[in-house]
Each structure stands twice: as C-alpha cells, then as structure tokens.
Amino acid sequence: MSLIVKICGLKDSADVEAAVGAGADAVGFVFAESVRRVSPAEARVASESVPAGVLKVAVMKHPRAEEWNAVLDGFAPDVLQTDAEDFIGLDVPEGVRRWPVYREGRLRDDETLPGEFLYEGLRSGAGQTVDWRSAAGVARRGNMILAGGLSAENVARAIAAVRPWGVDVSSAVESAPGEKDPMRIREFLKAARAAEQHP
C-alpha cells in the first residue's frame, strides 16, 4: 500500500494546484481558528479542480454541530479530521471518512483505535514534532497518519522510524505563516516518495 501524503492548510486554487500537481493524495482545509482558516465557500471554490482519487479533508477542532453541518453542506468534504472526542456529538454521513486526531500524551495504551487516524502533538499546525519512537508503537495499532513538525528535511527519517500509513505537513511547506510555497510542497512530496521507495 502506498504512503498517503496530505498537504494541509490550503487556502486557494493555486495552493491546491501546487499540492495536486506535486502528487498529494489528500488536501486539507482548515475550519478551526488559524492563520490558514477558510470558509466553506472558499474551500469549495479552491477545491473545484481536485481530481477524483485525491481526498478533500475538512480539518476542524471541537466544532459545534452547526459548524460541521455548514462545512458538510458548503464544502462537501471526503473526510472529516477533528479530535477523536469531537465525533461523539457530530452527525457524519456514511460517505464521509473519519480521521480522528489523537494527541501525544493523551492516548491510553489500552485505547481501541479506529482503522484510520491522525497522530500529532498537542497543538495542530505549530510544527511540533512528536516522539517518533512512541509514535512507532501507535502506528502498529492501525492506519496512522503522522503529523507534527514534518519537513522535506526530516520526513524520510520519520517514515523510517515510525512506519506510518501516511504523513501530513502544513507549516514546513510555507514561505510565511499561511502562505504555501509550491517549491517546498514539491520538495516534501519528493522526499516522502523517495523514502517510500527506499525504506
């Protein structure tokens, strides 16, 4: 199974074209408080050219039901990514995949994990690297997308150490907070794919 690579925090069609053109498997739009935050309408327009097979991910954090419903109706994502406990109060249709976020230090050893999930530090989008040794243990418990502090410079080491199902990047492919850099996106994808071919 090939590595899933997600480019997160996209804001417009140019960002999306850069990510898809570089070979991303998933594109993330942030609807939580962030310099990368977009509205459902902005995300819908930005993602109009996303081809079939590339996942459109709604990235949220502790959304109210009405906030999620607005994103669902206005953006129509393929995936909802939000903290694991958030799903309890949300109505997620069967056609939308769930990527619950589990945070380093808050995951019990005996906790049952779903088939697909994301693992990162306490603060999303802050460039915080998790402990890869402990993350490797978590990765063996399901299809884990590793996030937090990944870059073109360290993603190969992260993949070798953790063996995740996927990797997620945001701040390290920016020229300034919230400003995606097409060259850095290409470099990240190139490094991730090379690591995938030469484990």
Describe the structure in your own words.
This protein is an alpha/beta fold. The protein has a single domain, classed as Aldolase class I (TIM Barrel, Alpha-Beta Barrel). Helix content is 30%, strand content 22%. Strands 1-2-3-4-5-6-7-8 form an eight-stranded parallel barrel, surrounded by four helices. Strand 9 and strand 10 form a beta hairpin. Helix 1 packs parallel to helix 6, helix 2 packs parallel to helix 3 and helix 5 runs parallel beside helix 6. The radius of gyration is 15 Å and the shape is globular.
Observed structural traits:
22% strand, globular, 199 residues, alpha/beta, TIM Barrel
H/I helix tally = 6
- How far apart, in Å, are the first and last alpha carbons? 13 Å
**Biggest pleated sheet:** 8 strands, parallel, barrel
Envelope shape: globular
Rg, rounded, reads 15 Å
Q: How many domains make up the coordinates?
A: 1
Mean pLDDT: 93
Oligomer: single chain
What structural class do the secondary elements suggest?
alpha/beta
Percent helix, as a range, is 25-40%
CATH H-level superfamily title: Aldolase class I
CATH architecture: Alpha-Beta Barrel
Please give the number of β-strands: 10
CATH fold title: TIM Barrel
What string gives the helices and strands in order?
Answer: EHEHEHEEEHEHEEEH
CATH classification, class level: Alpha Beta
- Taken as a percent bin, the fraction of beta residues is 15-25%
Poorly predicted tracts of residues: none
